[in-house]
Design a protein that fits this description.
mainly alpha; 20 helices; globular
Length: 495
């Protein structure tokens, strides 16, 4: 009897008994994309030795991926709207698997860098399609909350899962498996997508905004590249300043062009919406702080406390569990009854509190008393924040714009990660250098001073990250004024 209602898109999603299996496929693809940003971090020292990479070039294993991913997301989102979300999803999955296989078989640094850039490009097609499919598959507010809770948990914990998987694969197999592992995951997701995902076709007769692609993607690439180069070169380096100037010019020109383009790459009404803009900004600020945590804790646990790759990965496990609990057990249950900012503001306050606890670390801190409580608070805070951000940013968007809206959420995440890595790493290294210079004269052994200096730099940067988290909470509280979805349905009809 239920099949009689499949003419209605929303009704079809309500009665399709396989929609939760479709969520598994979508979530699997999203997890692969997110964890790939960090899975190679722990494997990087092994890959560097194996392929003969220089210290100056090794960052390109990370940067090539984030640069292509962050820079091409808007284009990927619009492609999803033009050719259809399911088709984009399948193209992204297949391309990501091929690029991963090329990277795993790399015989030199150049081949690995190119494969990582190709992974990023296909991830930019895959990620917006995945979020759009989720948005169009779950239309009932109650089910939507559960679905976005699971999705938010994976988006928030994927990076931490990457550290665990990367540590295990590097220690027990070799670094190449950190890339090869994507091939079977993608194969399963492709088969699942073909069997379970449904989508209306792309927009007939729509054209791609080529000037918008050049200006928007060029501006984002310049911005992400600038932050990536600020880390090794410093903020006042001529190349870094030139990249930031180019990014500003291109993005201003992009906004100007979008106001008169016949088929804009990013329809400006998407970012003019107060709730949506607040979600984009909250996401970017939250990820700045979170990437700072990942960066410093990886080095702190391995270099200062002497943890193995596997033990380092497992040390992040409580963070992952806390994010999943925060997203699926707290946010997903409460979002039907409270406004999104009632979750996002306490979430960012909790995450900032976790960061403040982490500022107590020393060269010989105990994991259980000084690291674990911070990770749990951070995880709960991120879980409370990410799920309502994803759900609110994509709510009420016209189907033709769902791909580009999803891409904008992902773009804010990627740009935030790039800014966080470069900004906080620069703060940490300059603070460490100043500490070492000031304390070497007091007769303490150089080795001890250097270790203390490194931890001092981490602490200064973690304080900054805590401040950024609090700012994210303020932004969410001031800008995101949406009501609880349950009440919002009725109010929209009236308004």
């Amino acid at each position: 009897m239920s099949h009689a209602r499949t003419g209605d898109g929303a009704a079809a999603s309500d009665v399709d008994p396989r929609r939760w299996w479709a969520l598994v496929v979508i979530a699997l693809a999203q997890l692969m994309v997110v964890l790939d940003a960090t899975i190679v971090n722990i494997a990087l020292p092994s890959a560097q030795r194996d392929l003969g990479m220089s210290d100056g070039n090794r960052q390109w294993v990370i940067t090539a991926y984030t640069l292509a991913f962050g820079g091409l997301l808007l284009l990927g989102g619009r492609i999803s709207d033009l050719i259809g979300r399911k088709r984009s999803f399948l193209i992204g999955l297949a391309g990501f698997a091929v690029a991963s296989a090329i990277g795993g078989a790399a015989s030199g640094p150049g081949m690995l860098f190119a494969a990582r850039a190709l992974q990023g490009a296909f991830a930019a097609v895959l990620a917006p399609a995945a979020l759009s499919l989720l948005t169009t598959t779950f239309t009932d507010p109650l089910e939507r909350g559960k679905a976005f809770g699971i999705y938010g948990a994976l988006a928030g914990s994927g990076s931490a899962i990457g550290f665990i998987v990367g540590g295990v694969l590097t220690e027990y197999l070799n670094w190449r498996w950190c890339l090869y592992v994507n091939v079977p995951i993608a194969a399963v997701a492709v088969l699942g997508a073909l069997a379970l995902l449904h989508d209306r076709p792309g927009t007939a007769g729509a054209r791609l905004d080529v000037p918008g692609v050049v200006l928007g993607c060029g501006g984002l690439v310049a911005l992400v590249y600038g932050f990536a180069e600020a880390e090794p070169r410093g903020w006042t380096d001529p190349l870094v300043l030139a990249l930031f100037a180019a990014a500003a010019v291109l993005l201003v020109a992009f906004v100007g062009w979008q106001t008169r383009a016949p088929s804009p790459l990013l329809p400006l009404h998407i970012v003019r919406d107060r709730d949506r803009a607040g979600c984009f900004l909250t996401m970017m600020l939250a990820v700045i702080g979170m990437f700072g945590l990942f960066l410093f804790m990886t080095y702190y646990l391995q270099v200062i406390l002497g943890y193995s790759p596997v033990r380092t990965g497992l040390a992040f496990l409580p963070l992952t569990v806390a994010i999943i609990i925060g997203s699926t057990q707290i946010s997903a249950r409460l979002l039907q009854h409270v406004p999104p900012r009632a979750l996002m503001v306490p979430g960012m306050a909790l995450a900032a509190g976790g960061m403040v606890i982490l500022t107590r670390i020393t060269v010989d801190s105990a994991y259980l008393s000084e690291v674990l409580p911070a990770l749990v608070l951070m995880g709960l805070g991120m879980g409370l924040t990410f799920m309502p951000v994803f759900a609110t940013a994509t709510a009420g968007v016209a189907p033709r714009d769902s791909g580009v809206t999803s891409a904008t959420v992902n773009t804010s995440q990627q740009v935030g990660g790039s800014i966080g890595t470069a900004l906080l790493n620069t703060i940490a290294t300059t603070s460490s250098a100043a500490y070492v210079k000031a304390h070497l004269a007091d007769g303490t052994g150089r080795g001890a001073v250097v270790r203390e200096g490194i931890v001092h730099g981490y602490v200064v940067a973690i304080w900054v990250a805590a401040g950024v988290m609090l700012l994210a909470g303020v932004v969410a509280g001031v800008m995101v004024t949406a009501r609880a979805p349950k009440r919002g349905v009725g109010s929209e009809a009236v308004g």
